[in-house]
Specification:
The complex is a heterodimer. By secondary structure, chain A is mainly alpha-helical. Chain A has a single domain (2-176), classed as LemA-like domain (de novo design (two linked rop proteins)), CATH 1.20.1440.20. Chain A has six helices and no strands. Chain A has helices at 2-57, 64-78, 83-104, 108-112, 114-149, 154-157. In chain A, helix 1 (2-57) runs antiparallel to helix 2 (64-78). The N and C termini of chain A lie far apart (91 Å). Chain B has two domains: 3-71 and 171-239, no CATH class; 75-170 and 243-324, Metalloproteases ("zincins"), catalytic domain (Zincin-like, 2-Layer Sandwich), CATH 3.30.2010. The radius of gyration of chain B is 23 Å and the shape is elongated. Classes of the chains: A mainly alpha, B mainly alpha. Chains A and B meet through helix 1 and helix 5 of A and helix 4 of B.
Chain lengths: 186, 328
């Protein structure tokens, strides 16, 4: 009788361990997928920028600094190595683009131009997509981390080699600031 | 409840609702057999067979083809067709591209494939989602909604519809709608059967003399009441499910955009346009972001609205969203 009870307890524990393990594996794959989605959106942004710069170049000839800053930031972001480096350089690109959009708002000819309107829509959509991809990644990574850290799963999560996923956060302090725009025409 | 518990609970509810409806339909059909067809005398139980057939065919048809039927009924046009039309103005193209982008953004935020996008040619602002799961989902917005809302508000509405898709609300509601239709149809047939079935009542008197009369009479009374109330009960059940899901979709939509005020402002604009959405009929009302029929009952809270309204009152929804943004 006692043997039977022990057997049942062991069986229940085994089923629970298998279910938890599978759940963690599923979450880990979702986290990896979320991370790749961010890359996909960043790539889209890099592809879009030359178009934007070419369209506004004619009308914004004397804003050469802003335009070069965007192109340079793009080149740096594309050659970034490793997540931390990429995060920092993408942040700088975001800043440069924000400045460009804000400056372009001051040109009536640009604001009225259909191509520019469409490109601005594309650009803000891309910025949003990058943001939402990060948001989704953070949500799913938080869930993965919580699933590992709650009792009793935490007892064996480390044993099977599950590590907490890193959350995406703003590493560059300057990125937290709202970009300022100098309206005086140099 | 998180998203996965929501989905699991909706899957359970789908089965539960289907089982309840099938039992109900079977009761209607079985009663017809007992009182009019006289199964014991070697007749085919035509009522039961018919009831179950109508119920399961309509449930299956709506599961697999419900989205196409709804889109067809509202004469919705695919966004891609409109955007590639030769006479599309640059402004129109910009608007359509914006909608496409917003849907893309929300699909990314929700981690689901991008649903197909449709435009309903109707000047009243409204939107709905349809399709049995995220892989077969469509989102439709009316022309009026596209014209009235700015980008942020549009994002709020799309996020609301995306949440319906993600929570599997659409599946539940589509099947509920089909079964409501089936019970209305069957109870109508059964009532007609009672009218011409003069001979039937004599048969049931024969049965009384055989004994067990009280039980037979009790069953007959329950059956008759069920027939009379069938459309009402089915409708009430559907409305109850629908209203709960609306609050939830508002909340999980705000979780996607992290901007509850966008949807709150959109709802204010939608409410201001009081005209009913002519292109959307009663059958798909529960799929929309606001009641397309513009019924007064949706404006109040209380017992009767709780029974008949497909959507919670708009001021309550807006207030809940503003509360999420700490604006109250």
């Amino acid at each position: 009788m006692a043997f039977l009870i022990i057997l049942i307890i062991v069986a229940v524990l085994a089923v629970w361990a298998i279910a938890s393990y599978n759940r963690l594996v599923g979450l880990r794959n979702q986290v990896a997928n979320g991370w790749r989605q961010i890359d996909v959106q960043l790539k889209r942004r890099h592809d879009l920028i030359p178009n934007l710069v070419n369209t506004v170049r004619g009308a914004m000839d004397f804003e050469r600094d802003t335009l070069t800053a965007v192109m340079e930031a793009r080149a740096k972001a594309m050659s970034a190595s490793g997540p931390a480096d990429a995060a920092q350089k993408e942040g700088q690109l975001t800043q440069a683009l924000g400045r460009l959009i804000a400056v372009a708002e001051n040109y009536p000819t640009l604001r009225a131009n259909e191509n520019v309107k469409m490109l601005q829509e594309e650009l803000s959509a891309t910025e949003n997509k990058v943001g939402f991809a990060r948001q989704f990644y953070n949500d799913i990574a938080t869930k993965f981390n919580t699933a590992q850290q709650v009792f009793p799963t935490n007892v064996f999560a480390g044993m099977f080699g599950f590590k907490p996923a890193e959350l995406f956060e703003i590493t560059d302090v300057r990125e937290r600031e709202v970009p300022t725009v100098d309206l005086s025409r140099r | 409840m998180n998203l996965y518990e929501q989905q699991a609970s909706n899957r359970r509810k789908t089965w539960l609702v289907m089982a309840a409806f099938i039992a109900f339909l079977f009761l209607l059909g079985f009663g017809f057999d007992v009182f009019y067809v006289n199964v014991g005398g070697g007749y085919v139980p035509i009522g039961s067979v018919l009831a179950l057939a109508v119920g399961s065919v309509s449930a299956l048809a709506s599961y697999y083809g419900g989205d196409r039927a709804v889109l067809l009924a509202t004469s919705a046009k695919p966004l891609a067709d409109l955007a590639s039309a030769p006479d599309a103005s640059p402004d129109e193209k910009l608007k359509l591209r914006q909608l496409e982008n917003v849907v893309d953004e929300m699909a990314i935020a929700g981690g689901i494939p991008r649903p197909r996008i449709y435009i309903v040619p109707d000047p009243d602002p409204n939107a709905f989602a349809t399709g049995r799961d995220a892989e077969h989902a469509s989102i439709a917005v009316t022309r009026g909604l596209l014209d009235a809302l700015d980008r942020e508000e549009l994002q709020g509405v799309v996020a609301h519809e995306m949440s319906h898709i993600r929570n599997l609300d659409v599946r539940l509601m589509t099947i509920v709608a089909a079964l409501v239709g089936a019970s209305a149809l069957l109870s109508d047939w059964a009532r007609r059967g009672m009218m011409w079935g003069g001979g039937g009542s004599s048969r049931s008197r024969d049965r009384d003399r055989d004994g067990g009369g009280i039980a037979a009479i009790a069953f007959f009374v329950i059956w008759a009441i069920a027939i009379l109330l069938a459309p009402l009960i089915a409708q009430t059940l559907a409305m109850l499910v629908s209203r709960r899901r609306e609050y939830l979709a508002d909340a999980s939509g705000a979780e996607l955009t992290r901007n509850p005020l966008g949807l709150a402002r959109a709802l204010e604009k939608i409410e201001a346009a009081t005209a009913p959405t002519a292109a959307i009929n009663r059958g798909s009302a529960h799929l929309c972001i606001t009641d397309p029929l513009g019924r007064q009952v949706n404006l109040k809270e209380g017992f009767w609205p709780d029974l008949f309204a497909s959507h919670p009152p708009m001021p309550a929804r807006i207030a809940a969203l503003k509360e999420m943004a700490f604006q109250r």
